[in-house]
Amino acid sequence: MGDSLPAVDLGGRPAASVAAGEQHTCALLKDAAVVCWGGNRLGQLGQGDTGSRGDTSGSMGQTLVQVNLGVGSYPPVVDLSDFYYFGTGVRLNGSTSGDHVGWSVAGAGDFNGDGVCDIAAVGNVSGSSSGLGYLVYGSVESFGSSFALSGLDGSNGFQISGVSGEGVFMAVDAAGDFNQDAKSDVVIGVPYAESGGNAEAGGAYVLYGGLSSGAVFDLSSLSSATGVRIEGSEAYGRAGWAVAGGGDVDLNGVGDVIVSAPSASGGIGEVYVVFGAASGMGASVDVSGLDGSNGFKVVGVNSSAGGAGWSVAFGDVQSDGYSDVLIGAPFGGDSTGEAYSVFGHASAFDATLYLSSLVLGVEGLQMRGVDGGDNAGYSIAGAGDVNGDGIGDVMIGAPFADLGPGWGPSGADSGEVYVVLGKPLLSSSSSSSSSSSSSSSSSSS
């Protein structure tokens, strides 16, 4: 027998029906009034003050009958301007004007190893010479409807302070278990950093889960015990423009990360896949040293400055267990845009892979946009299994696509999102046409 559910006094007014969920409960009363309040599991009713309870005096009514509380449901529409429905979420507030916290956000996995998932957010700070980020530890206790990031003290998370002169953080993502210590890691892109004496060569930082930190972790103090700096090699290549983690391209059980440099090679773009290692890799690794055994470089198509790597992600479009490298090149093909999937595999990788010579259907896929100026590939993501066939799918954003045919658009820049369905063991004879037609036939605005 479980514990008795707490009771709410409905004050003599009978309830016609009650919907009880994990984090709030709603009752339709006989007089047609609807009342909602927070669930008890997170201490939002029956303890604490009105600031932490789901029912504040005078706003939801106090003349109620009696209902027993359940746990977890949501209103059909969650308005982010009004977190009155306790249990729908929490707002994280930046601390200083111009911080732009939320420029990039990610689930960080279980960074501190307490069994609860954590979150990471970075800010593109106006006029700053160094980056600013936050790692907030998840908790089974309530955050309330808002949480001030200035309140991070090391026990509930910490601030990540960039190195002076390296510029802002551009992107953040969970890095999986990059050093195989059974804790989740985080990767942060710093595309404007100087690396190896090359201006704006860029780079990325992988922070190892479980690192000891007070209220602030300064990246200038990074060591091989707390993380690794991945350094770009080409001036103004801007490695770290986009980052991705959590994949395992060679399926060796250690997480890998992607760091992209869309401005490298004269705007053709380069993408670096860096393999994680259980033995660690020192405090820094230069992408020029990737040789196939520790990672590899992907170079965009030479015929156009497509900006390969403007967006990157991991996916598994063949459902073979190997993570595939998803690359957006939104400025390719007269800005029609292109996207690529480079297949993961067990055999050795070459140090450099050229998308122009990719054997389609065997080594990867090309997915082309529809009309000039659509910029397909501006964003890309592994979509999970959208149609329930057991195979991973891909989402490709084309934010500047016009509604209707290219010769007569009715909604300029309305944008499109394409869902490309994965297929097992794709063959080279069908991949080029099928990937192109899939992009056209599976769009949604």
From TrEMBL:
Chain intervals for the UniProt region annotation (Disordered): 426-445
Keyword Signal assigned: yes
Cellular component, GO annotation: integrin complex
Superkingdom to which the source organism belongs: Eukaryota
FG-GAP repeat windows: 225-283, 294-351, 360-429
BP term (GO), one: cell adhesion
Signal peptide: none
Keywords of this entry: Glycoprotein, Hydrolase, Repeat, Signal
Compositionally biased residues, Low complexity: 427-445
Pfam hit, one: RCC1_2
GO terms, molecular function: hydrolase activity
Protein name: Integrin alpha-2 domain-containing protein
